[in-house]
Amino acid sequence: MPLFKSATRELPEIRAIPRHIAIIMDGNGRWAKKRFLPRIAGHSKGVETVRDAVAASIEQGVEYLTLFAFSSENWRRPVEEVNLLMQLFVSALENEVAKLKKNGVRLRVIGDLSRFAPKLQELIRNAEAATAENSRLHLTIAANYGGRWDIMNAMNQLTREKPEAAGHWTETELEAYLSTAFAPEPDLFIRTGGEERISNFMLWQLAYTEFYFTETLWPEFGGEALKAAILSYQRRERRFGRTSEQLTESR
Ligand code: IPE
Ligand code: IPE
Ligand code: MG
């Protein structure tokens, strides 16, 4: 049995505080450019914002926080920026894991990790193992992640493991192989930096997620900004296909 309700097959329970928030952390480069700094300075500042977002999520009672850190298309960036981002990823893992562990945070990294340097892959495995007992906040970093990759990867695994069911797989079977199988579907999606697009993030999982776009650049997005996004979420009417009248009647 799947652990969580699917927005398309059942009616998920709705809470005042989104149980799962997924964020595209965008605008680091522009933040740096405005200050005549190199782009990587924006990425470093962005790591500090991740700390704030984690603290605010714990304070608000959010259970799952998924952050898009590097997309499967970000390899197209200049090689120097890609290399510096990888170094930043390594140093963030080296510096933050002990604190995450202490604060009850379980860290996971999703995406095609095989393209990362062996040292980075090992750091990721160790960080996941070190925090595996925690459950206060499930913090997931999407790195070399793409929504299409996630779906294709799940389909290919399903084909290998259940070839006899090919041609009549169900959503439930596919979902068990998605990289987010451990989490409920996101209730709230946030994209900072002003762009209003999904950039190949969680294509399957966001089917009924509420979207929130803000001009605020990621390095300037703090706990208060997260609260503002939650407030906006609380004003939404999540209908999952039904009419507004049906919702009033069932209350
Ligand atoms: C997001 O910030 C971080 C990554 C994609 C790694 P950007 O680097 O995309 O910042 P902008 O969009 O250029 O301002
Ligand atoms: C999306 O941001 C990916 C991450 C934040 C990691 P981008 O800045 O790469 O997205 P596009 O290219 O503008 O759509
Ligand atoms: Mg960007």
Keywords:
globular, alpha/beta, binds 3-methylbut-3-enyl trihydrogen diphosphate, 251 residues, binds magnesium ion
Could you characterize what this model shows?
This protein has 251 residues and is an alpha/beta fold. Helix content is 42%, strand content 14%. The chain contains eight helices and six strands; from the N terminus they run E-H-H-E-H-E-H-E-H-H-E-E-H-H. The chain has helices at residues 28-34, 39-60, 79-102, 118-130, 147-161, 171-175, 223-234, 244-250, and strands at 20-24, 64-71, 105-110, 137-145, 188-191, 210-213. Strands 3-4-2-1-5-6 form a six-stranded parallel beta sheet, sandwiched between helices. Helix 4 links the parallel strand 3 (105-110) and strand 4. Helix 2 packs parallel to helix 3 and helix 3 (79-102) packs parallel to helix 4. The radius of gyration is 18 Å and the shape is globular. Bound molecules: 3-methylbut-3-enyl trihydrogen diphosphate (2 copies) and magnesium ion (MG). One 3-methylbut-3-enyl trihydrogen diphosphate (IPE) binds next to helix 1. One 3-methylbut-3-enyl trihydrogen diphosphate is lined by residues 24-26, 68-71, 74, 195, 197, 199.
What is the strand and helix layout of this fold?
Blueprint (H helix, E strand, L loop, with lengths): L19 E5 L3 H7 L4 H22 L3 E8 L7 H24 L2 E6 L7 H13 L6 E9 L1 H15 L9 H5 L12 E4 L18 E4 L9 H12 L9 H7 L1
The site of one 3-methylbut-3-enyl trihydrogen diphosphate has 11 residues, from strand 2.
